[in-house]
């Protein structure tokens, strides 16, 4: 078990406990000192390398069509985080006709949630093979089951959780005008997605609110107006995000640190 011992920022809880995973062990270097994750006193001598650091993770929550993907593009442009959309990863499985492709397609068509194990493993693969140490995980966790599975399999907690709060009528209008050929962009599926969002995503939102990690953004207005609310959330982390460089033993792009 790893414990985050250094203080992060006044805005973020410094007492979150993390469990060690292969994924965490893969991160040798990452964001600035203030994000370091160290082995706590009683765990010294456990054989684990001390001072291994965790990546900077932002979860992006919000109902269907609330503008998560749109705002993620702007965050990427400004702060250089790596965007991982859970929905895009699932759609890629469908397009590639993988063994889970048909099952995923049927669930997405029906607005239902794909088993957490499947989604988390896709995210884990991207996280482990990435050369980045700062991630925006969009459309995840959708459920408490998603959240717990990520903690168990990946072994990391988010540093920031964004919630794009948008009225249902606005989300419906946006989705029906999206025109990207998505199988779930129709009124029947949209109604189901909204119900599932209310029932299953709200508890996740409440969970992070109670942990002091949730930033609620009013998602009505122009894209730029909404981004103006997002900017100050990342500003305190800007220096760390700039310095962030990761040593990933699996990545051929990174020199060995030893
Ligand atoms: N502030 C905004 N005002 C009007 N339209 C917007 C705004 N933000 C995004 N849109 C448009 O609304 C649609 C949905 O946006 P986006 O795809 O970013 O939402 P999302 O939250 O990622 O949805 P989903 O969960 O379905 O993937 C897109 O066509 C996008 O261009
Ligand atoms: N954690 C997730 C994320 C998505 N899904 C399924 O994909 C659909 C589309 O997701 P978007 O984020 O692109 O809107 C969503 O309705 C779910 O069917 C999922 O199961 N789990
Ligand atoms: Mg999206």
Provide tags for this entry.
binds adenosine-5'-triphosphate, UMP-CMP kinase, Rossmann fold, disordered N terminus, globular, single chain, binds the ligand Nc1ccn([C@@H]2O[C@H](COP(=O)(O)O)[C@@H](O)[C@H]2O)c(=O)n1, five-stranded parallel sheet, 43% helix, disordered C terminus, 258 residues, 10 helices, alpha/beta, binds magnesium ion
Number of domains: 1
CATH structural class: Alpha Beta
Distinct small-molecule ligands in the complex: adenosine-5'-triphosphate, the ligand Nc1ccn([C@@H]2O[C@H](COP(=O)(O)O)[C@@H](O)[C@H]2O)c(=O)n1, magnesium ion
Percent in helix: 40-55%
Report Rg: 18 Å
Query: Which ranges are low-confidence, i.e. pLDDT below 50, for 5 or more consecutive residues?
Result: 1-52, 247-258
Q: Give me the CATH fold name.
A: Rossmann fold
Strand content: 5-15%
Quick check: average pLDDT? 81
CATH-defined architecture = 3-Layer(aba) Sandwich
Span between N and C termini? Answer: 25 Å
Overall geometric form: globular
Strands across the major sheet, in which order? 4-5-3-6-7
CATH superfamily: P-loop containing nucleotide triphosphate hydrolases
* Biggest beta sheet attributes: 5 strands, parallel
Helix-strand string: EEHEHEHHHEHEHHEHH
Strand segment tally: 7
Structural class: alpha/beta
- Give me the number of helical elements: 10
Binding site for ATP: 65-70, 178, 221
Pfam families: ADK
Function: Catalyzes the phosphorylation of pyrimidine nucleoside monophosphates at the expense of ATP. Plays an important role in de novo pyrimidine nucleotide biosynthesis. Has preference for UMP and CMP as phosphate acceptors.
GO cellular component, one term: nucleus
